[in-house]
Amino acid sequence: MSRAGACLAALFLTAMAAPSSPALAQGDPALGETLYRPCRACHMIGDGAVHRVGPHLNGLVARPIGASPGYEFSADLATAGAEGATWTVEALDRFLAGPREYFPGTRMVFRGIRSEADRAHLIAYMQEAGGPADAAIATEELAVDPEVAAITALTADVPYGEYLANECTACHQASGGADIPSIRGLAPSVFVAGMVAYRNGTREHQVMNTVSRRLGDEEIAALAAYFATVD
Amino acid sequence: MTINRRVFLGTSAALAGSLAAPMIARAQSVPRVVVVGGGSGGATAARYLARDGAGAVDVTLIEPQRIYQTCYFGNLYLGGFFDYDDLAHGYGGLASTYGINVVHDWAVGVDRDAKTVRLASGPSVPYDHLVLSPGIDFVDGSVPGWSVSAQGRMPHAYKGGTQVQLLRAQIEAMPQGGTFAMVAPPNPYRCPPGPYERISMVAHYLRENNPTAKILVVDPKESFSKQALFEEGWDRHYSGMVTRIGPDMGGSSFEVDAEAMTVTIDGVVENVDVCNVIPGQRAGQIAFAADIVDGNWAPVSAYDMTSRIDPAITVLGDAAAQGAMPKSGFSANSQAKVAANAILASLTGSRAFPARYANTCWSLIDTDDGVKVGATYEASDEGIVSVDSFVSQTGEDAETRAATYRESLDWYQAITTDMFV
To answer: Which residues form the signal peptide (chain A) (predicted)?
Structure first.
């Protein structure tokens, strides 16, 4: 069994064994919408949602883990999905409590939400805004942002990307840190989506916004192509 | 003379590295690059030259210390947030992984005509291109009453290592309600927010262990880096503990007495228990020995960090007069990568890319209260110029500050990996 599979098994055993949380609290979607604000930097939800840095979250509940067409997931999530795991409310609750405790290999940069009530509000909002699992199908056609697609389609100058990447490695370790993630081996579409979101300010981070604002499309394409080649 | 290779081999790891590398490749059919100084500029330059040169250049790193103690995060050690041992980094990986000749010796002279570096132990090392990254030395007489011979009583603790341990021990030994004094440096100096992060970390330690103690900062500067953020933090976390005396209040007219442990400001004598003197600064001595300085610093081209006085010499980091970048470990690391690309292009004909630089300086004010300032830079004929910049805001929420601090911890791991691993 894979590490992710083992984590999942442990999760369900814990969930069944824990008398204090046999059933999760009912959340309030209105409160969840406020809590969702920081998530929006990476995850779109609702009408017209497409993959950005993270996958869109339409139809998330009951969707297989690590499986949404057009998005390249980390190995941990993809393996869990391949083994049949789905995003149940319980699994989401556990993931949101501590993403890296649940899936150590996740690329999601988020430390988790301690409050059980807040997690319930957030899940309630995602169910309301993202619809049932069927809704995922309707948005798959739209799943790639056109600006991201255009940059990803450029012919990339990989040696230039390797030189530009020297600026990244001052902070981004190959192995990833606890808060600054590894960016090696990222799918080009994911890398480009992230940089475009930082460059146009839809994703906020002072360092990354400043770094990305001086990158042209060719430079983002070069970086994406370089990082895709290294593990 | 040609130095016996064994003189170079400082560590067993270095020996293993040299044996693993083909000796023929070292037979001086390839250009020789000598790097003096194994800090953020020099270690990064050596590593990138050897890694990207992949045998096309022979790289020698001359550094007297066997263990490098980072200056950055030394303040966090003072505050109790970082272990002293975690500030230490060895050169074994540069020797064994990249085949760099690591020489633990002092570089004491440069013969620019003969293109050799003279070592304190006697021999000279030939170079085709020389990289000087010596960091800082102190300007004699910049603090009236203080000289390097007083550093045992009034430590500077501004080059990392045992001086920082000494300062910590002195702070721990302060009597209850005692006074910690700092003489802050005039511009320009290493790590612009450094003295003020240090004040924050000392205040944190004292609040926990000696809450009636006072902190007195004598500062010859009108203003300083991230001033609004630090002053907001001192007000919030250490109310009433920190007094800063700027030049308008006599901060530019003072002297210290290490024997009497006094600081005299505008004629008023203050008895203090600890006095951290951070003197005025200049480029490390080897830049003066090489005669490539103009005033206190070594002027360089912004396009490739080569000396404006001798293009066969590159100057990195604190020692360089390059324009707008602050003197920081992050800056030195950034400059080293640009320089390595340019040196390899000039010596081997590999592809040269345009210079682009970046810097971020993080500071910790109190537990989980981190702030940052940074910018991106490019080259111009006049020097390095800022393209874009950012700084943390006053009044930020707690999670933003905590995330900034956590990111600084990741940066520390990343830059030391980028230098040594």
So the answer is: 1-25
